[in-house]
Amino acid sequence: MPKPTTAVGEAMPTIDRRTLLLGLVATAVRPAEAGAARHDPLLDLIKAYRQGVIDFYAETTDQEWEGLSDITYGPHLARIDRWEGPAVTREGAIEALRLSIDDVGGVADCDSAERMVRAAIGYLESLPA
Questions:
Q1: N or C: which end of the chain has fewer CB within 10 A?
Q2: For the range 27-32, what are the long-range contacts, defined as Cβ-Cβ under 8 Å and sequence gap of 24 or more?
Q3: Quick one: which of 54, 68, 46 has its CA closest to 120?
Q4: Do 119 and 85 contact (CB within 8 A), yes or no?
Q5: Contact 77, 106 (CB under 8 A)
Q6: Per-residue pLDDT tens for 37-80?
Q7: Which residues lie below 8 Å from residue 92, measured CB to CB, with a gap of 6+?
Q8: Exposed e or buried b for every residue in 78-103, given b needs 16+ CB within 10 A?
Q9: Which residues 6+ apart lie within 8 Å of 114 measured at CB?
Q10: SS3 at position 15
Q11: Buried b / exposed e across 2-36, counting CB within 10 Å, b at 16+?
């Protein structure tokens, strides 16, 4: 059994090394768990944009294209076009990169693609070395 450590000359509670280490381990948060709990507004925006594109193609006819884009994916694309700042999560960074190369006719090959790449780089640069 471990020997308790006491403070000299003070009336402090005693704690053995094993109990201290167990407490430290129990209160530590692993990086994966910390990242999973973080909210990423860029990821939310990308998901909303993709859902808007799905809604657009599900409901459109040749005569409705312009008006329908304004209520499906258009507002989300406009926010992507103005996005500043890094992704907050790994998933957000990955989705930003995917969007920048996969969304031909939307984000790929335009200024928005560069914004998404910069957001992913910003996330990567925030990681510990």
A1: C
A2: none
A3: 46
A4: yes
A5: yes
A6: 689 999 999 999 999 999 988 877 666 677 888 899 999 999 99
A7: 40, 42, 43, 46, 119, 123
A8: eebeebeebbbbbbbbebbbbbbeeb
A9: 100
A10: strand
A11: eeeeeeeeeeeeeeeeeeeeeeeeeeeeeeeeeee
* Distance separating alpha carbons of residues 35 and 126, to the nearest angstrom: 12
Specify which residues 104 forms β-bridges with.
108
User: What span, in angstroms and rounded, lies between the C-alpha atoms of 100 and 69?
Assistant: 20
Distance of alpha carbon 106 from alpha carbon 45, whole angstroms: 14
* Count of other CB atoms within 10 angstroms of residue 52: 19
Cα-to-chain-centroid distance, residue 58: 28
Predicted confidence (pLDDT) at residue 6 exceeds the cutoff of 60 = no
Nearest to 114 by CA among 102, 129, 101: 101
Tokens 């076009």 identify what position?
Answer: 81
Question: Would you state the pLDDT for residue 28?
Answer: 45
Q: Could you tell me the pTM of the whole model? A: 0.67
